[in-house]
Design goal:
Structural class: mainly alpha
Number of strands: 0
Radius of gyration: 12 Å
Amino acid sequence: MIGKLIGALVGREIDRRDGKGGLKGAAIGAVAVGAMRRLGPLGLALGGAYAAKKIHDRRKARR
């Protein structure tokens, strides 16, 4: 379940780069979940770190 949440966050962050929402982010998130599961705990940590860094950078830019 945590892997799916992190996959959704990764897909959302990647999809925000082009400014358009939709199916592309969901597809990238689904692929990211598959890749993270194959890498095991390391993949989960990498995906979580990527999403956390993007969220942190966005909050920092608002200030």
